[in-house]
Specification:
Elements lengths: L10 H12 L28 E4 L2 H13 L4 E4 L6 H6 L7 E4 L6 H11 L2 E4 L7 H14 L2 E5 L7 E13 L4 E14 L6 E6 L19 E3 L2
Parallel strand pairs: 1-5, 1-6, 2-3, 2-4, 4-5
Antiparallel strand pairs: 6-7, 7-8, 8-9
Length: about 220
Amino acid sequence: MSVRAAELPSRDALQQLVRAKAGTAKVHHLVPVHPALAPLLPDGGLRPGAAYSVTGGALLLTLLAEPSAAGSWCGVVGVPELGAEAARSAGVALDRIALVPQPGERWLSVVAALAEVLPVVAVRPAGRVRDADAARLAARLRERSCVLLVCGDWPRVEARLAVDEARWEGLGEGHGYLSGRDVVVSVATRSTATPRHVRLVLPDATGRLSAKAPGTGPVELRAVG
């Protein structure tokens, strides 16, 4: 389901539109993540009611893939470049994604409306969020057991997930085919003294996250610092 800026409904109408598609059941259990990312998070998944900062479009798609494939609806606000083919390749169930690519100045109201009825909402803020607005939204997230994924900075996040040291594999001396992107994913949480990171392939040859690069041995997982 996609909503354009020109036809953006009122907050109440948006909630009714999503309820008709997704239902209103709360999620009280952890929102699943890829098994390779689970050891980086204190709970082994995304905690309902919490906000997470995410860098990198491929990492965002990876975080949307697991819950949508498991049957949960996800909302994406303010990310107009999110492509259907890339999302499908990453494992995202497109029939359970509500897109609002151009929310304009009402982006925060749109996020709040979607958080009422969806278990996972992703957003790229159109501007700096005030602490008071972030606190009100945090209360809404806890009340509705919604996970917020923010592309960028956000006050009082549960964890910050970032892609570092990206390097494409598969090209020889000026020719060949890209077979995957070797990356380091780092996670800094509120409950750990130092960030942890793991070397993965994102995306791999199929467009998804792989727990290890072919021929490189086991996954490396360690703390930084």
